Amino acid sequence: MIRIAKAVSVSFALLLSALAFGQGGSATGDLHVTVKDPKGNLVTNATVTVKDQAKGLERGSTGDGVGGYSVRLLPPGTYTVTVDAPGFARTQTTDLGVTVGEMAELPVTLSIAGSKELVTVSSEAELVETSRTSTTDTIGQRRIDNLPINGRNYINFTLTDSQVVRDNAPNTGAAPASGLTMSGQRARSNLVNVDGADATDNSVNGVRSTVSQEAVQEFQIITNGYASEYGRASGGAVNIITRSGSNDFHGDIFGYLRNRNFQAVNPFAVCQKPPCSKPAYTRVQGGIAFGGPIKTDRSYYYFSYEITRRHETGFSSIGQNNFGLIPFDTSQVGQPFGTVQLTPGQIGFLTNPAVLATEGASPAYANEVGQYVVLAGASSGQAVNGVWPTALVQGASGGLLSTWAGFPTSCPPGSACALSRRRIRPWHRKLETSQCLRARVSTRCASTTT
């Protein structure tokens, strides 16, 4: 019997924003800059600007009048922070990374200006977050690009967090679960956002199809103590941020191949005639991703496409070799139940000399062994033929009945159980070929005006 199954999934996402910095909610981060002079006094008349190094976009800050300057709703990326104040040298902090959901504090100390002077500080260190109460972890682009992963399911990178474990419940179907257990909750108790939009199916709390791994810039894991904006989640929240274009064109073409002709045999495989043949499994994954500017410093595009083809062969056997049952004449061990079908282990127990000796010395024990024979023989007869063996029914009922069908634990002969005459034959089915085709397309466009 040959079954061919094909599944095609195509997702297309388009985001067009009037302001690239106008993204809100869980798709952005916040930056708070504290400006001080060389003596540690707060500087209240400074001007703080933040510039995206990849896109060239700039944002001004809002001062609180006591030396603090806030820049909110920053898309995740790498920034340059410039601080100007009368009487002080201009200070720049470069290579400052802001991640999704981050509420960062950046302290800046100005120096007294002499002649025209520029102080540049290069910082790739983690920023201090003093206002966050939640437990979070961010999976950055470096880990997504370089860590090995089976099947390119990037959400499994969350397992690098010690507070997240894999959920082994089936996650296939129209609305699969996240496959992650956070804070001891099941996989359908989590919230997944993509670019700030809810990607969770409200009906079953499953996760909708998202984007290719190549289109993911980073994502944040929040395991507990998160803010009220992440509602409907008793487990944890995952915020996924997709990549976007920049002033420079960049892209890549990728492909991964597993083929039965050169993959190894499973060392735990069991076969009747060694050596075992190689498993019939072939998987091909490939795609393309690229992005760049539509208009420098104003508009950008990013496109990604990924496809997965899988071809495999598997076997499923039910009832092969008569379920491993062997006909056994119970009269050999002094039981009046005729021939029943038992497993080799059950036959070994009944013919054990120690068991036979105990039966001869204890009538109560012999009665228990007889009940065991009835239970085992009736179960095998019901499973294979849909009825109990005739001789067993006659022996168990004292000759009152000749036929009986039903579950032996709840339907003893002579009771008012519903009779069943259904006959079940052992059968063997072979799943010859299964093919799976999956494709994902995602496009993200951001535009800004100044």
Description:
Strands 3-2-6-7-9 form a 5-stranded mixed beta sheet, with no helix packed on it. A 5-stranded mixed beta sheet has the order 10-17-18-13-14. It has a 4-stranded mixed beta sheet with strand order 4-5-1-8, with no helix packed on it. The protein is elongated. The protein folds into 3 domains: 21-122, Carboxypeptidase-like, regulatory domain (Immunoglobulin-like, Sandwich), CATH 2.60.40; 135-285, Ferric Hydroxamate Uptake Protein, Chain A, domain 1; 320-397, no CATH class. It is mainly beta and 450 residues long. Mean pLDDT is 76; it is low at 1-25 and 416-450. It contains 5 helices and 24 strands. The two termini are 65 Å apart. Helix 3 crosses helix 4.
